[in-house]
Request: fold
Amino acid sequence: MSGRELFYIRRAHAGSHLSGDGPFTKKCEKWLRKKTHCQKALITHSCTGALEMAGILAGIRPGDEIIMPSFAFVSTANAFVLRGGVPVFVDIRPDTLNIDEKKIENAITRKTRAIVALHYGGISCEMDAILRLAKKYGLWLIEDAAQGILCSYKGKPLGSMGDFGVFSFHETKSIISGEGGALLVHDRRFVTRAEIIREKGTNRSQFLRGQTDKYTWRDIGSSYLPSDIIAAFLYAQLEKASWIIQKRLSLWNRYHDAFENLEKKGKLRRPTVPSHCRHNAHLYYLLLPDTKKRDKFMRQINQRGIHTVFHYVPLHSSPAGRRFGRAATSMKVTNRLSGCLVRLPLWIGMEKQMSRVIHETFRLLS
Ligand SMILES: *Cc1c(COP(=O)(O)O)cnc(C)c1O
Reply:
């Protein structure tokens, strides 16, 4: 918590606007616009919702193909499958675990409509190459920056480089509102439609601004707005976002320094942060030599009261992924590394506990 969450919720409660698009929603959206230089930021009830909106805005139709990594969260694919789209999975880079930009071009077919660049752990994909491909083939570029708030690639904010960008404020992320998300729109031409899709397919937003004298059903859409109570909570977090991320980065760096020696001895691999990327310490992971060693490490450290987790089960190998999508490349790196990854606890205020995590990790792995 940043300290002002309940204070702002009390203010929202004292006002008379508890539904969507109240004063706190506007404050959050202004903050996001300023940080990402987008035309329009719309906060949503989840990043999943924001991805679904991107799928509608991109006009995805049955049979359209969307290129994305398989090492991804379910919603990244589901948002397009809901439109009848086909996720086409491409392998990841062994260093950042992001989509391998060199393997994208071979996966492009006549049916390809979009590329999703998922910035794993807030560490950017190679955007120059991906932007070049999107332009060359006339494809939509959607940035899944769910984990990437206040991160950058060559100085440009994540979420600001494609046609649409999305953030998540789920409680497992760095800046939170319990459930929550945002859609960033960069082309002025899509702003009105985005507002309509978010307001159940109506032009209520334009109506409330006095830009139209009737409020009617205009398009497909759903209810993607969060309550202003949620926005009040979120605004307290956004106000302190830089502070929160500084704190997280100092913890992240402590892990990173501590495990340097184990990496030199070949016991594990640490995350790679390219020098042109700035990240937000969303997560700290280790890559152990193989799945057997990873599982054993997790079992032993969990027995010592330290909760570690792994993710993702590669989408191409999941039941729904097999049914709705297909792999366009070999999935060698995805298959191998997803079985080696373990996430360590990372939360503000864990300085003391961190010493124990580091100590136990050394005992188990050196
Ligand atoms: C968390 C996450 C999502 C979904 O976010 P929600 O806000 O929980 O809907 C989507 N993509 C990625 C990469 C995520 O990490």
